[in-house]
Design a protein that fits this description.
This protein has 107 residues and is α+β, with helices and mostly antiparallel strands. The protein is built from 6 helices and 3 strands; from the N terminus they run H-H-H-E-H-H-E-E-H. Strands 1-3-2 form a 3-stranded antiparallel beta sheet. The mean pLDDT is 88.
Length: 107
């Protein structure tokens, strides 16, 4: 069972950065964004944004599509389904543990 969840660790690691979480939030709108669009309102350079996007792309959270000379990035929800499955599993285990604790305390 542990090996099944181990493949999710890189996704958690990629999402463990505030900038990358912000980029994912911007991309969740459903339409592709250019690096320039993603850099708008940010203090980060386009190069820094690109580095963060490459990390997200390496774990499958985003993918790029060429549009002329420009790369546009899109959100891919599939890796997030695995994360949701894992979090549901952990939540169920915590619920079971808390139920056992309540039963123990009430005795």
């Amino acid at each position: 069972m542990a090996s099944k969840w181990r493949v999710r660790a890189p996704v958690f690691a990629a999402l463990g950065d505030e900038t990358r979480l912000s980029l994912v939030a911007k991309l969740c709108g459903g339409r592709p964004h250019s690096i320039s669009q993603l850099a708008e309102g940010s203090k980060l350079t386009r190069q820094a944004i690109t580095k963060h996007l490459r990390v997200l792309e390496s774990v499958g959270i985003v993918h790029s599509v060429r549009a002329g000379r420009e790369s546009r990035f899109e959100f891919d929800p599939e890796p997030m389904e695995g994360i949701k499955e894992y979090l549901d599993f952990v939540s169920e285990k915590w619920d079971q543990a808390l139920s056992r604790l309540v039963s123990f305390v009430e005795i």
